[in-house]
Structure formats: structure tokens, C-alpha cells
Amino acid sequence: MKNQKDRMLAGKLYKAEGADLKLDYDRNRRLTYEFNESRHNEMERRKQLLKQLLGKIGENYYIEPPFRCDYGSNIYIGDDFYANYDCIIIDVCDVTIGNNVYLAPRVQIYTASHPIDAAVRNMNVEYGKPVTIGNSVWVGGNTVINPGVTIGDNVVIGSGSVVTKDIPSNVVVAGNPCRVLREITDEDKIYWEKEASEYHLDMNQ
Predict the structure, then answer these.
(1) Domain 4-198 belongs to what topology?
(2) What pLDDT shows up at residue 195?
(3) Catalytic residue among 114, 158, 168, 175
(4) Among 37, 89, 129, 161, which residue has the fewest nearby CB atoms (within 10 Å)?
(5) pTM, two decimal places
(6) What is the rounded CA–CA span in Å between residue 101 and residue 25?
(7) 3-class DSSP state for residue 167?
């Protein structure tokens, strides 16, 4: 496997060089520049730029500029997605995000890593591990999600968390390193459905 792009996507040691990676990198810089410099009322243009930039994005999505990523083509997002200001996704491997995922300001998702051994690291090689985020996940501001992490469904991640290990479904987590604080229970459902009904929200919408 001599092609640097193939090595990168396979999670092998690689150098960020070569014609394929440069082409992808230049394309990314052009599209992210156009997206981040777009006017606030150019909503349709922003959506079209994101469709060109990302590997996949579903229905009903919004990303607030500025937004940064390495390639974009390795990011796969489901329906009903929202990312607030200053989202950074380093996608040297696949980043897969489910439906109904909400990212607060300055959420950072990293797939890239470097060798622990200094002599190998100084050869300017790196590698990646994919990140997966399930459905119905809310990620608090300034959270860092590290390479190789899988996050389950129905998860709330507190602000400022540093996620270094997999997170199971149906939990509230926070901290550095991020840890489970408690399970999400039927009591949460009852409480928030009551709040929604008082606010005249239709839970079946």
C-alpha cells in the first residue's frame, strides 16, 4: 500500500503528501473558504457548498461559520444536524455522525494522531482512527472528541469534556477525561415531556 491517501484512510502510518492528498486538500480549502466567507442570507449557497465538501450529509442541516476540516470528503452526517460556531473536524479517517446530532460552539473532532516514539514521529508520519457518533447526541461547547472514539445513541456530553474512550448509549457524561455521570432515565423523559407540553410543543412532530 504505497499510495499515501490509501494508507491514510486505512489508518496506517502515512505522510501528508502526494498528488491525491494535495488535490483533496486544495479542494477543501477552496470550498471551506467560500463557505466561511458567504453572507448570512446566502443559505442555499451554503447548503450547496456543504454538499460538495462533505462525503455525505442528510436532510435538514445547518453549520454555522466558521467551520474547518482537513478534507471534508471523509465526513458522513445524517439528518437533522446542527453545528454551532468554530466546529473543527480533522477527518484523515472517517467521521460518521448519526441523525439528530447537535454540536455546541467550538466542538472539536479529531481522527488524526502521531506516533508515541519520537524518532518515528520526527519522520513526519502520522496515522488516523475513525470516530463514530450515534443518533440523538448533544455535545457541549469546547468538547474534544479524540481519535478512535465511538459514542452511542441518546448521549449528552457536558461542556469542556475530553472524550478519550467509547461512550455507551443513554448516558450523561462529562469531564477530562470524560466519564459517565448517570444514565438517562424515564424520569428525564417524563420531566421534559411535561415541560414541552406546557410550552405547547407537539412531541409527535
Answers:
(1) UDP N-Acetylglucosamine Acyltransferase; domain 1 (2.160.10)
(2) 86
(3) 114
(4) 37
(5) 0.93
(6) 26
(7) strand
